[in-house]
């Protein structure tokens, strides 16, 4: 198993851990944020989920999975990962997947094979293992370096918890249940935020400005090239109706090609083609995203239409393409430089994650047999039942 290569995984965890700024909610509104219950259980299947009996639940992790929250389910060297940590990440990964569909999926393909020998449920489990392992590695490495989390993190979460109790008419149990709905407890919430802080400290220690290994401009560019990040502007002469996606008639398409040829000729003849590019782009480009991206698109491989991407990546900074044809129309592309300072911290994070990955490979990961036996579909159904119960409780108060 490899560590996730998604940059900012810890920052995402911290954002979720903040529960969407719960301090601004009323007592009857569960906290916002990914996996929360602002309008009911966070799934399309939530409407049909029968609420479980909260009075019979003392350990939410046991209730949804059969695994006690404090049960150790993974080990990395001397580091231990409990069921509560793993199940939080399993919930997080599944909920994030669902969010891509706006919660409109009517069923989840748990047993569908998404790649050779790997079902969707197994894929979700692998993702959860990777994120749990990443956090465990951060804690272990920070401990060896003598780093400790900022004490204000626990203090702030204690304050947040106390404020939520006040908003809940002094009903602490209801607040605890609200955390459960996102597979969290106050202690786990604190730990996730502390891990994020330790991650930042490790990055500064190993790759910060005073570390002796602060990423150079060349290293930043190598990182951007490796992950396929680039920036470009373009002039688009559309050969389709951008609202209906229907192609224009042949005469209109021929006119667009003629206009594109004329614009390119002007650029090739210009003393300052970069300045002229902006002028022509604002005058002629039919890209509906221009107003929101007047300084160009910062994107990565796989995000733009293939002909645009291939042409843009083939250009040097400051170079203008020939006419590029895609399903959208005719493009003239200007490759733009990326300021290394904007990506130095991101590159440092990448270096740290590579370091964590290498150490994890050397230590190895042990997973308890209980994880292989876990039925992810049943786990998710039980989470929905727990969420339905928490939501019903909030509405009844």
User: What portion of the residues fall into strands of 2 or more residues?
Assistant: 5-15%
Mean model confidence by pLDDT: 86
Shape: globular
Question: What are the low-pLDDT stretches, counting only 5+ consecutive residues below 50?
Answer: 1-41, 43-47
Radius of gyration: 25 Å
Number of strands: 9
Please, what is the oligomeric state? single chain
Can you count the helices? 14
Distance between the termini: 45 Å
For the biggest sheet, the summary is: 4 strands, antiparallel
The structure class reads alpha+beta
Order of helices and strands: HHEEHEEHHHHHEHHEHEEHEHH
Spatial strand arrangement across the major sheet: 6-5-8-7
Percent of residues in helical segments? 40-55%
Task: Please explain how this structure is put together.
With 397 residues, the chain is an alpha+beta fold. The chain has helices spanning 9-17, 60-65, 83-99, 120-144, 151-167, 172-180, 186-207, 217-227, 250-269, 273-284, 306-314, 344-363, 369-373, 376-396; strands at residues 72-76, 79-82, 113-115, 118-119, 229-238, 297-300, 324-325, 329-336, 365-367. A hairpin with a 3-residue loop joins β7 (324-325) and β8 (329-336). It is globular, with a radius of gyration of 25 Å. The two termini are 45 Å apart. Residues 1-41 and 43-47 have low confidence and may be disordered.
Which key phrases capture this entry?
397 residues; alpha+beta; 3-stranded antiparallel sheet; 9 strands; 51% helix
